[in-house]
């Protein structure tokens, strides 16, 4: 039976319910945030992109950057994808572990993109990392290809910078983490259209379309969707209060529990997003990555949340507002990603079935050992079915023959009776 995640702390559940009430009461308007953006701590979206482009220009041997655009019904966006590939020419990229990280899917969660920027600095410039053996670190990076989407929701981020500090949606009011196809469009009793608008159809939004195509082409072994609002390490599922079964699910939980124990002293919630957050989320990216793309390790990380913040103070609720906390959060979660890379690489390589047996099938990934077992079982069932079909055929022939014999027997009896009657009459 699938394991259920622990219930959320009462304070987190209270915040979620209070937000729903506030947003519902606001109707078509979002509440204004009491605390403004800390401009001395946070980059603007333009400044953050300038820093990333400058970093890529300084390290063309390790970094590259793609700009991808898409549009739908008059709405367009662009995504910037940074690829880190240590010693590009020395190894076959197909033999490396592929990691895909997405930050800033919700516009109001500025802290996530700051972690993305710092992580890229650490991967390339590695000046000094406390507690990290640089030689081992370099060796680990040789086995990884990492793609980073620093701001998935650029248009939504710009709306936040213009004053809509509570807005998590994209530029035309759709929650990108509800726009994917797994359980899309289902609404809970506390559904808030302003917070959770799933769009007109799965993948109606250009941002989701780009991410889907990126996933198909890159075929990640690990995926992390980075959010803020609490501190947690989540695995599927978001749309139900269970975690998956099987070897891959055990692998995911093992990686998260090791990370939680090694780095967070077991302080983070670990389990399914649907079980731990306090509400079910339908149409999320992580559930799609697991159910449809078959990514071996799809995760959602929640990296910060201020439980003391007022429900009307969205910026403070989702982002640190003082430099000490800001630096602590960024350093802590950058180190968490380095440990994740190490844990993921070791677990995927140790459990060969999770790498060598994950075989490409038309752009998707399936678990080879499970596929083989399924195939063997299918052949057994097919043989059983064939035998049953033959038995049914023999049974039908037997019944038909019996019916014919009974008909002939009854006809003979009838004729004999008629002949006897005729003779008696004569």
What does this structure look like?
This protein has 426 residues and is α/β, with parallel strands linked by helices. It has 2 domains: 10-356, 3-Layer(aba) Sandwich (Aminopeptidase), CATH 3.40.630; 370-426. The protein has 13 helices and 10 strands. It has helices at 10-26, 45-58, 110-125, 134-141, 154-161, 193-196, 206-218, 247-264, 273-276, 285-291, 314-318, 323-350, 368-425; strands spanning 63-72, 75-85, 97-103, 144-149, 222-227, 230-235, 269-272, 297-304, 358-361, 364-367. The protein has an 8-stranded mixed β-sheet, sandwiched between helices. A hairpin with a 2-residue loop joins strand 9 and strand 10 (364-367). Helix 2 (45-58) packs parallel to helix 3 (110-125) and helix 3 (110-125) packs across helix 12 (323-350).
Give a nutshell description of this structure:
This protein is of the alpha/beta class and 426 residues long. The protein has 13 helices and ten strands.
What is the alpha-carbon Rg in Å?
30 Å
The overall strand count is 10
CATH topology of the largest domain: Aminopeptidase
What structural class do you assign from the helix and strand content?
A: alpha/beta
Identify the strand order in the major beta sheet.
Answer: 1-2-4-3-5-8-6-7
Outline: globular
- How many alpha or pi helices? 13
Q: Tell me the name of the CATH class of the largest domain.
A: Alpha Beta
Query: Which CATH-level-2 architecture of the largest domain?
Result: 3-Layer(aba) Sandwich
Relative helix content:
40-55%
- The CATH homologous superfamily of the largest domain corresponds to Zn peptidases
Question: Could you report the average pLDDT, rounded to the nearest whole number?
Answer: 82
Overall domain count: 2
- Residue fraction in strands: 15-25%
Low-confidence stretches: 1-8, 13-29, 353-391
Give a short account of the largest sheet: 8 strands, mixed
H/E series, N to C?
HHEEEHHEHHHEEHEHHEHHEEH
């Amino acid at each position: 039976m699938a394991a259920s995640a622990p219930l959320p702390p009462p304070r987190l559940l209270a915040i979620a319910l209070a937000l729903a009430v506030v947003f519902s009461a606001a109707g078509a308007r979002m509440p204004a945030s009491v605390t403004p953006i800390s401009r001395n701590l946070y980059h603007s979206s333009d400044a953050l992109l300038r820093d990333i482009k400058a970093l890529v220009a300084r390290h063309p041997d390790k970094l590259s950057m793609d700009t991808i655009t898409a549009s739908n019904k008059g709405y367009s966006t662009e995504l910037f994808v940074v690829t880190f590939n240590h010693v590009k020419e020395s190894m076959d990229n197909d033999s490396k572990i592929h990691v895909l990280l997405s930050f800033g899917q919700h516009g109001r969660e500025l802290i996530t993109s700051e972690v993305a920027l710092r992580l890229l600095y650490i991967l390339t410039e590695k000046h000094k990392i406390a507690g990290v053996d640089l030689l081992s670190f370099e060796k680990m990076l040789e086995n990884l290809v990492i793609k980073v989407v620093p701001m998935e929701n650029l248009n939504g981020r710009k709306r936040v910078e213009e004053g809509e500090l509570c807005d998590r949606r994209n530029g035309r009011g759709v929650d990108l983490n509800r726009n994917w196809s797994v359980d899309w469009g289902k609404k809970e009793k506390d559904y808030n259209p302003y917070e959770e608008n799933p769009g007109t159809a799965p993948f109606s939004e250009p941002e989701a379309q780009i991410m889907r195509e990126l996933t198909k082409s890159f075929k990640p072994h690990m995926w992390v969707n980075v959010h803020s609002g609490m501190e947690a390490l989540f695995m599927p599922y978001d749309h139900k209060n269970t975690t998956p079964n099987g070897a891959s699910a055990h692998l995911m939980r093992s990686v998260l529990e090791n990370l939680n124990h090694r780095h967070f002293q077991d302080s983070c919630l670990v389990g399914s997003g649907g079980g731990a957050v306090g509400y079910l989320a339908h149409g999320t990216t992580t559930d799609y990555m697991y159910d449809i793309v078959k990514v071996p390790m799809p995760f959602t990380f929640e990296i910060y949340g201020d439980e003391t913040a007022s429900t009307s103070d969205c910026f403070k609720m989702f982002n640190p507002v003082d430099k000490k906390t800001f630096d602590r959060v960024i350093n802590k979660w950058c180190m968490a990603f380095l440990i994740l890379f190490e844990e993921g690489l070791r677990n995927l390589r140790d459990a060969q079935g999770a790498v060598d047996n994950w075989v490409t099938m038309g752009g998707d990934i399936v678990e080879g050992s499970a596929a083989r077992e399924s195939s063997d079982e299918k052949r057994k069932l097919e043989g059983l079915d064939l035998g049953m079909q033959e038995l049914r055929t023999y049974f039908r022939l037997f019944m038909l023959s019996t019916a014919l014999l009974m008909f002939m027997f009854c006809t003979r009896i009838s004729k004999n009776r008629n002949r006897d009657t005729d003779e008696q009459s004569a």
